[in-house]
Specification:
- Strand 5, helix 3 and strand 6 form a beta-alpha-beta unit.
- Helices cover about 40% and strands about 20% of the residues.
- By secondary structure, the protein is of the alpha/beta class.
- Helix 4 runs antiparallel to helix 6, helix 8 crosses helix 13 and helix 11 packs across helix 14.
- The chain folds into two domains: about 210 residues, 3-Layer(aba) Sandwich (Rossmann fold); about 180 residues, Rossmann fold (3-Layer(aba) Sandwich), CATH 3.40.50.
- The strands form two sheets. It has an eight-stranded mixed beta sheet, sandwiched between helices. Strands 11-10-9-12-13-14 form a six-stranded parallel beta sheet, sandwiched between helices.
- The protein starts with a strand and ends with a helix.
């Protein structure tokens, strides 16, 4: 089949877009990726995961706003329609809510539209306001009430919805989508990424890793507070912070205020995916500190499974999906969301080598048996085949 994947930002790179498109390509389907073009890349580019068809770069002052992924941006409408017709696509997969209305309208019944719902978008917009990061224009472009209303109007017009976790599927069903039109394709790694385990070097510090965006609602502040408490208690540890984001500079300042400096803490910034995974593989414990708000109670971060595959024990907040998986698999320990003292205590418990080894082995076993991209790929391919056959 011919599949069009609509991605609302510049491409490359996005880990899920690459994984989904590469899985479809390797299964024999022809894949086209419609993408934004703020960086001024070539309009068309052939990559292993598919042919990228980009918008114009719009280099005039303020031109990037012309390609902003607004719900019914006519430039995106025209681009999706033209690319779909040019490549005679059979199925369109649109990533998340911003361009879902445009994808539906551009289809005009010509092809079925599937949403790849990686995020609870209304809840994610609410986080911006809760964190105090909203700007005046966000009252229009990132208003949680408007976004929720658009979602309710759009969902009935989609032929299928792919979510990343069961809690997200349950939310979609509560919004009125029939269960048989919802499937889970999670943020899992390949079984080929599972590494051989090695013992902790005697006398070496416990290496703690955080991988992901540096934003307040992701619990990064609690990671720093917990690290400060461990340092005060004389615990021998090292903390690797991998990623960037809107609060990155704020967290670096906070670390300095707490007396956390290199080599005890290293802010790596954003790294290429391969390098980020390399940092994980040198670690002992991976932290998933996300606040237990609606957003993180209805999605699952890549890093949870990446930690498990890399042989790290996990310490996660009690946000519902991550807590359920950690409890089910025995991959680690849970702490109360937002409680730095409890996080520090759970990290301290994993100084016990027997407990640490038990958790990391359980996590890897779960990736090999259930939480892997090979299993999720089978669901993805089945969804695409069924949707195409039904229309």
């Amino acid at each position: 089949m011919r599949v069009l994947y609509v991605w609302d930002a510049d491409y490359p790179w996005d880990v899920r877009t690459e994984k989904v498109c590469l899985a479809l390509t390797q299964a024999g389907h022809s894949v086209v990726i419609a993408a934004r073009n703020k960086q001024g890349r070539p309009r068309s580019e052939v990559l292993p995961e598919g042919l990228v068809e980009r918008l114009p770069a719009f280099r005039m002052p303020g031109g990037s706003w012309l390609s902003f992924p607004a719900f019914l941006n006519p430039i995106w409408l025209r681009h999706v329609r033209r690319v779909g017709l040019r490549h005679r696509v059979d199925v369109v997969i649109v990533r998340d809510l911003p361009l879902a209305p445009a994808a539906v309208l551009a289809s005009r019944g010509t092809w079925p539209v599937v949403m790849d719902m990686a995020e609870n978008y209304p809840a994610m917009m609410a986080d911006i306001w809760t964190d105090g990061q909203a700007k005046p224009l966000d009252a229009v472009v990132r208003n949680p009430r408007i976004v929720a209303a658009v979602e309710r109007r759009t969902l009935p017009h989609l032929d299928h919805i792919i979510t990343v976790v069961e809690e997200s599927s349950q939310r979609v069903v509560r919004l009125g989508v029939p269960e048989d039109r919802v499937s889970v394709v999670s943020n899992t790694p390949s079984v080929n990424t599972v590494v051989a385990l090695s013992p902790r070097v005697p006398g070496s510090p416990m290496r703690i890793v955080y991988l992901g965006l540096m934003e307040e609602h992701r619990g990064v502040g609690e990671v720093l507070e917990a690290a400060s408490q461990l340092a005060t208690a004389g615990v021998d540890f090292a903390l690797d912070m991998v990623g960037d984001g809107r609060d990155y500079a704020q967290f670096r300042r906070r670390a300095e205020e707490l007396g956390l400096t290199a080599p005890r803490i290293v802010f790596h910034g954003r790294l290429p995916h391969r390098d980020a995974i390399g940092v994980l593989r040198r670690g002992h414990v991976g932290v998933v500190p996300h606040h237990a708000r609606e957003s993180w109670n209805t999605t699952i971060p890549n890093k949870l499974f990446d930690y498990m595959a890399a042989g790290l024990a996990v310490v996660s907040s009690d946000a519902a999906p991550a807590a359920r998986i950690v409890n089910k698999t025995g991959a680690g320990l849970l702490f109360k969301s937002g409680d730095a003292k409890d996080l520090a205590e759970k990290l301290r418990q994993l100084l016990n080598e027997e407990a640490w080894d038990r958790c990391r082995r359980s996590g890897q076993k779960a990736v090999l048996s259930q939480y892997n991209w090979e299993a999720d790929t089978r669901v993805l391919l089945d969804v695409v085949s069924r949707v195409a056959a039904e229309t």
